[in-house]
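Design a sequence for this backbone.
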């Protein structure tokens, strides 16, 4: 545990923010979200509460940054796995896409909190930066999928939203939760948790078939 040293340069300030995000991320994997406080994050860093306030004013400020970082990693990985000119079949693309989602489960976990919690307690300026980066990333994915002939650009938003929202929900269902496990045992119910990868692969295949059919229908109408 290191004590707080005031940052002077932009690089030092960025380093402090990285330290804050790392501490918050560690706590996220140890505790429930509502149990994580700025005080707990400051203690993990070995800083005073006042020192932490020099960089953030709410814990949602931190988790918005964590969600942004996780999204950028996910998008970069998906673009790398599905390069321009790639001609994967829908079934193969579904498997590739599923692997990327499975490798970025933290992004799904952060996104589960995004609309109902994180976005309700950050500044408009921070949220504006997050939204700009989000739509920039989505535009990159839309362009790649359209370029590779998967779906028309005007329908790609719906494809990505359908996959993301289902993945977020499924990830929450598949995540270990001691309280839920205890409740299921008390209720005398068997565990019916699905396999994340199998379920997502089937769902993505279905979505790709649906939007590909929509593209063909639009072409016929034209």
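Sequence:
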């Amino acid at each position: 545990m290191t004590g707080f040293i005031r940052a002077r340069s932009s690089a030092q300030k960025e380093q402090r923010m990285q330290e804050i995000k790392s501490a918050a991320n560690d706590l996220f994997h140890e505790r429930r979200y509502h149990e994580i406080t700025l005080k707990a994050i400051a203690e993990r860093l070995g800083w005073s509460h006042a020192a932490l306030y020099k960089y953030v004013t709410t814990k949602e400020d931190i988790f918005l940054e964590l969600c942004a970082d996780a999204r950028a990693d996910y998008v970069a990985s998906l673009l790398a796995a599905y390069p321009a000119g790639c001609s994967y079949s829908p079934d193969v693309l579904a498997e590739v896409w599923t692997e990327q989602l499975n490798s970025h489960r933290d992004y799904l976990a952060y996104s589960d909190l995004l609309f109902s919690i994180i976005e309700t307690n950050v500044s408009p300026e921070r949220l504006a930066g997050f939204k700009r980066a989000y739509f920039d990333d989505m535009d990159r994915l839309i362009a790649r999928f359209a370029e590779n002939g998967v779906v028309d650009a005007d329908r790609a938003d719906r494809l990505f939203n359908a996959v993301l929202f289902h993945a977020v929900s499924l990830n929450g269902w598949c995540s270990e939760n001691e309280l839920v496990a205890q409740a299921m045992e008390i209720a005398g119910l068997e565990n019916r948790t699905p396999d994340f990868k199998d379920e997502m692969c089937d769902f993505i295949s279905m979505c790709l078939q649906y939007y590909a059919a929509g593209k063909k229908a639009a072409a016929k109408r034209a």
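The first helix runs from residue 10 to 28.
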